[in-house]
Design goal:
The complex is a heterodimer of chains A (587) and B (172). Chain A is α/β, with parallel strands linked by helices. Chain A has 24 helices and 18 strands. In chain A, α9 packs across α11 and α21 packs across α22. In chain B, α1 runs antiparallel to α2. Chain B has seven helices and four strands; from the N terminus they run ααααβααβββα. Chain B is an alpha+beta fold. The N and C termini of chain B lie far apart (41 Å). Classes of the chains: A alpha/beta (587), B alpha+beta (172). At the A-B interface, α1, β10, β14, α17 and α24 of A face α2, α4, α5 and α6 of B. The structure holds flavin mononucleotide and FE2/S2 (inorganic) cluster. Flavin mononucleotide (FMN) binds next to β9 and α20 of chain A. Flavin mononucleotide binds next to β9 and α20 of chain A.
Amino acid sequence: MKKIKVGLGTCGISAGGELVFNRFKDELLKQNIDAELSETGCNGMCYEEALVEIEDDHKSYLYSKVTVDRVGKIINEHILNNNPVSDWIIKSENISKEADFLKNQTRIVLRNCGEINPTSIDEYIAKNGYDAIQQVLNKSTREEVIENIIKSGLRGRGGGGFSTGMKWKFAYNSNSEKKYVICNADEGDPGAFMDRSVLEGDPHSVLEGMMIAAYAIGASEGYIYARAEYPLAIKRLKIALGQCYKKGFLGKNIFGSRFSLDIKIKEGAGAFVCGEETALMASIEGKRGVPRLRPPFPAVSGLWGKPTNINNVETFANVPWIILNGWEKYAALGTEKSKGTKVFALAGKIKKSGLVEVPMGMTINEIIFKVGGGIKGDKKFKAVQMGGPSGGCIPASMGDLKIDYDEITRTGAIMGSGGLIVLDETTCMVDLAKYFLNFTQNESCGKCTFCRLGTKRMLEILERITDGKGKESDIGILEDLSTKIKSASLCGLGQTAPNPVLTTLKYFREEYEAHIYDKKCPAHSCPSLITYSISEEYCKGCGVCIKSCPTGAITGKKKEVHLLDNGLCIKCGKCFDACNLDAVIKN
Amino acid sequence: MFEVKINDEKKEILNFKIDLINKRHQSGSLIGLLQSAQDSYGYIPEKVIEYISELVKIPAADIYGVITFYSQFRLKPLGKNIIRICEGTACHVNGAKTVLQVLQDELGITVGETSEDDNFTLLSVACLGCCSLAPVMMVNDETFGNLTTDKIKKTLKNFRSKHITEAVHEKN
Ligand SMILES: Cc1cc2nc3c(=O)[nH]c(=O)nc-3n(C[C@H](O)[C@H](O)[C@H](O)COP(=O)(O)O)c2cc1C
Ligand code: FES
C-alpha cells in the first residue's frame, strides 16, 4: 500500500499544506483508494513547501510545491497508475534536484523531522524511540549517564554553550528531596525557528531527552516552557505527553523501574527575557519574568528554590542519540571544542531558506553557498547575522570561518541558538543595528538602569544617524555606552545587547561614517538618505508608478517620460517596486 | 458574594483551572489563569482581575503588574479580525517595513489599535516562525507569506467582504 505524507509544520501549513492534505483525504475517500495518508513535520526544505512524500515499496518520491490543483494529477498518475509525475519530484531514486542541500547535512537532532508522523508515538518507537531511556534505566547508573554526556562534548544549544554533562553533574551533586528538570522552549530570537521545528516534527525526542536528564540528576518533576506564539508545537507536545502517560512512559515507576517522572507544559506569555533561565523560572512561578543575579545557579537553587537543571530543546533532542550511538560517535563529529552538529535556521536573503543541520566546523561559505544555494537574486553576499539580538554581523570577507562556539565568539558575534540571517548588498548595517537595539530596548525588563536607559539612548542615536542627523561624536558615544551597558547589566540580555552595534562598527564602520559625514546610505535603504528619480532612458510612460504613488508626486502623460516631484515624494519606494522597466532610480 | 458579572460557563472554566492548582504553589497558576480568562473573553476585563485576585490571594495590583509585563495580555477587547505582522529579522530585511506601511495606510490605524468599525486589530509579533516565507503576516489563524502591496490589499479586501456577508447574514 502506498503511503502519502504531507509536510504539516508551520511552514508547510502556511504554504497551503493543510489544504493539500484535505484534498488528498477527500479524493482518497471519494475514489475509494486504498492508501495511507499521514502528516509529518518539516524536513527543513521550507523553500519547497508544500512537500508531499509518497512511499511505495520502500521507494520514496518527494514532491515539492504541491498545490491543491496538483493533487488530482498526482493521484491519477502516481497513486493509481504507478506513474510518478517526475516534473514535480525533487527527490527519488533517479531524481535528486536538491542533492546539495541534503548531501552536506548530518542529521542527528532532525533525524526524524519530516520522516515520521509527530502525532504517532508508535512511529517514534519504530525509529528506536524510547530505547535510550530503557537502556539507561536497565543498564546504567546515574553517574555513568552523566559521564557519557560529558565525554560526548555536548554543549548547550540555547546560546550559552556550557557543557551539558557538567551542568547535570552540578544538579546531581545538589542534595535535595525534590529536583526539577526544565526544557527551555521559549525560542525568542526573532528569525530563528529550530526549536519550533523539532517540537513540531519530533516532540518525543525532546521528552526522551528530558527523561534521561531527570533520571541522571534525580528529578521527579519536569516543565516545558513553551512560547505562546507556537500553538502547533504546544499542541503536538500535549499529544505526545498524553501518549507517554497512556503507555506508562511517564508517571510512576517508568518502564517498571523505581524512577518516576511527571512533565507539564507551561505556556509563555510573550516576553523575550523569559528565555533567560532565572526569568523563565520566575515566570513558571507565576511572577513577572525578571532575571535575578547568579549565583546561586539553578543547579543549586532553581525553581521554587530547589535544584533545577534547565536545557534547551535542541540539547535534549541530542541526548537519546548520544546514548544509543555512544559518546564516541558524537565526539567524532565537529571541532576540538565544539562537538556534534548544530541546527541552523537559514533565512534572509538566501535562496534556500529553511532548516539545516551540519557538523560543527563547517565554514560560513559552505553553509550559505553549498547548502543554502547562495544569495537570492544572485546579489552580492555582504554579511551574516548570527545570534540574534545578542549576536552580531560577520562580514562576507570572513566567510571561510569555521563555525564553532569559540571561533564565532572571537568575531564579536555569538553562536546563539542558531538563527543565521543572510544579508546582501541592499541591507544597511546601521539600520540592522537599529532594528536589534529597538528589539532589546523593547524587551528589556527594566531592572538594570544601564540596560533600560542605555539601550534607549543608543537607539535614539542610531535613529538620528539613519535619519541623516548624525553628529560627529555619535560613534564615540555609541562605543562608550556599549561598554558600560555590557559591564553594568545583570543578565545576558543587557550584557549582549550592544553586540549588534559593536560588530557592525567593527566591520562596517565606513557605513556609519557615510551616514554621518556624507549623509548617504551606501545600501540605498534608509528613506531619509535616498532620493528617487525617473530615468528618461527607460521610462515608457506606462503610468504604473503614477498609480502606485500615494501622494501624487509622479505626473506625466501616457507614453511620455514621467516626472517625479521630490518635494511631494515621501520615499515610500512603492513606485520603485511597481516599475517593471527599472526606470525608477534610487540614489 | 461577588458582583462580578461572569456568566456561569466562563466561571466554570476558571473554577476548573483552580482545581488544577498545585496547592503548595498557588501563585504558579496565575499566568495560566490569565491565559484562560483571555481565551474566554478575548481580553482581561477588570472584573476578572478582581475575581482571580480573590481566588489566588494575590493583590490585584500585583496581577496588573504581571498582565502588563507580558505582551500577550490585553486589557482592551480586540476587533473581529486580528492581523499580526511579523517584525522578525528575516522579515525586516525582506521589507516588513513596507508591509506595515501599507497595512497602516489601508486600515488607518497603527500597531496596537483597532479600526473604527471593530473589524481589524493590528498587532506585531517578533517572529511567526515561517521566516522562509518572509515578509509574513497572520490574519486570525491563517498565515500569508511572500507579501506584496497587491497581495496585502487583496487579502484585506477578502476579509472586508467576509465581514459584509456576515453582517448581511445577521440581518436576515
Ligand atoms: C535574554 C536571554 C534570552 C534567552 N533565550 C533563550 C531561549 O529562547 N531559548 C533557550 O534555550 N535559551 C535561552 N537563553 C539561555 C538560557 O538562559 C539558558 O542558558 C539555556 O536555556 C540553557 O540551556 P542549554 O545549556 O541547553 O543551552 C536566553 C538567555 C538570555 C540571557
Ligand atoms: S522573521 Fe518573520 S516569520 Fe520569522
